[in-house]
Design a protein that fits this description.
This protein is an all-alpha fold. The protein has helices at residues 5-66, 70-78.
Length: 79
């Protein structure tokens, strides 16, 4: 009866060690991903600003084309 406790105990200890290692690794990865996100934030903000400028420019070009501007019509047709 006492012989089966040793393997069960070893499996439980091995499982605990594995879970401890995996938790530590996940915490480390979470920190690394957080750092990467923080480093990318200025680039993302700049891209959003550029996109807004492009949408404004496209809207104004479409408005000019609707008002009859030939150059704007050509640009809209190429888009």
């Amino acid at each position: 009866m006492a012989g089966w406790w040793v393997p069960v105990f070893l499996v439980v200890v091995a499982f605990f060690v594995l879970m401890t290692f995996e938790t530590g690794y996940a915490i480390h990865d979470r920190g690394a991903l957080s750092d990467q996100r923080r480093l990318q934030e200025p680039t993302v903000q700049e891209a959003l600003k550029l996109r807004q400028q492009l949408e404004t420019l496209a809207g104004k070009t479409a408005q000019l084309a609707a008002e009859g501007d030939e150059a704007a019509k050509t640009i809209v047709d190429q888009m």
